[in-house]
Amino acid sequence: MIKRLQRKFVVIAAVCLLIVEFAIIGGINGVNIYQTNKNADDLLNIIIENGGRFPEFDPKGMKHDKPQDNSDSSSPPESKKPDKHRGFNEETKYQTRYFVVYADSNGEITKVDTGHVAAVSSSQAIEYGKSVLDSGKTSGTSGNYRYKTGDTNKGKIIVFMDCRSDSATKNRFLLVSCAIGAAGYILVCLLIIIFSKRAIRPVMESFEKQKRFITDAGHEIKTPLAIISANTEVLEMVSEPNQWTVSIKNQITRLNGLLKELLSLAKMEEEKPALTMADFNISDAVYDAASPFTTLAETKGKKLTIDVANGLSYHGDEGAIRQLVSILTENAVKYADEGGEIIVKLFTSHNGKETDLEVSNTCKEPPQGDLTKLFDRFYRDDSSRSRSKGEKKGGYGIGLSIAQAIVRSHKSKISCKAENGMMIFTAQLK
Asked: Which residues pair with 100 in a beta bridge?
């Protein structure tokens, strides 16, 4: 149980850390991509607003030269506010590689300017321009170039800017941030694993004290129960048995059963329960463990059907598996509807890797809510697991807890579901 708790702690911490890292790395790269694209768009706007070229840089304010061709572009404003071009300097115009395509109001290309780029010819620039005009988009990316369109008094101007350097920088930033994030994630996970025992130490100590208390109390209570039982037998020898002595003996038997199950549960929940693992015929074991309950079911007006596949072998503790079958079958007989049916099945799963033990019983009013609570110790559902038509159901509410502990000690799973008027417990034995 402590090992499972430690694993859950590590898994939950690792998943939370992974979510945080994804959020941080994704956020940083998202901001980086947004800022890079925004800088590119700001440069494109400057070129568009100045008729297809960079203005002359002035530290006190960006001054603009007249456009090269007033017939194809609108007259730009004489000056721009300095804060709009923050981050650009006198070298920006020489570091930026771009080309410009001009088109008339009919969408026909009238002029191209490739004097600021070496990788694109005039014919290629025309093809880029036609592609953008046909798409109807005002901005976007085409190949290695980011583009933006603007209106002039004669038509349109389309500016394409080479963003290969920016794309490479973004990719490198993404790879570096992911590598650093992965290294940090692995390192923190290792630290979580190393210090997880210290984190759950209070729970471990509490659990160990609980186990010791159950074991010590169980052994201590056995002595007074034995004395009470002996005294009751002496009283019955001296005088005739009466309802009081019979009641005392019934309660002694009940307490002895409770102590036995508590000690069995404490034993099964040890870190390394003393199980004798070996190959055995599980088909015979299940049939032998379930058969004695046939008579008990008949006395209660119920029918027990045993459907076991022949010749199945399993590697585990045969005694524990027999106890598992007994617990599930007794539980099904006890809580099946009056005149109902109990079915015990053993078969190989569809994937052929597991041996499934399925015990079901008719149940018109199944427990409500989370059925996994049925495996909690001392849990008793109010509706169907207390009393039925005055009949005492008995039990201590720890039988299914023992069944779960047995299955887990075999590194397997047990589940419960209610469907088609049946309560079905399935142990998937690996």
From this structure: 113, 159
Torsion of CA 343, 348, 350, 351, to 10 degrees: 150
Residues, the chain? 430
Return d(Cα 84, Cα 422) in angstroms, integer. 73
The rounded distance, in Å, linking the Cα atoms of 95 and 284 is 84
Q: What is the pLDDT along the chain (430 residues), one digit of tens a residue?
A: 677 778 888 899 999 999 999 999 999 999 999 999 998 998 999 899 888 888 876 665 544 444 444 444 444 444 444 444 555 777 888 888 999 999 998 888 999 999 999 889 999 999 999 999 988 898 999 888 999 999 888 889 999 999 998 899 999 999 999 999 999 999 999 999 888 888 777 777 777 777 777 677 776 777 788 888 888 888 888 888 888 888 888 888 878 877 777 777 666 665 555 678 899 999 999 999 999 888 888 888 899 999 999 989 999 999 889 989 988 998 899 888 888 999 999 998 877 778 999 999 998 887 777 787 787 766 656 544 444 444 445 555 677 888 888 898 888 999 998 888 889 999 999 8
Alpha-carbon distance of 355 to 24, in angstroms, equals 45
Q: CB under 8 Å to 231, separation ≥6 — which residues? A: none
> How far, in whole angstroms, is CA 404 from its chain's centroid?
22
Say whether 79 sits in a helix, a strand or coil. Answer: strand
- The residues pairing with 366 across neighbouring beta strands, listed in sequence order, are none
Task: Tell me if the pTM is above 0.70.
Answer: no
| DSSP 8-state code for residue 138 | S
Backbone angles phi, psi at 99, to 5 degrees: -140, 160
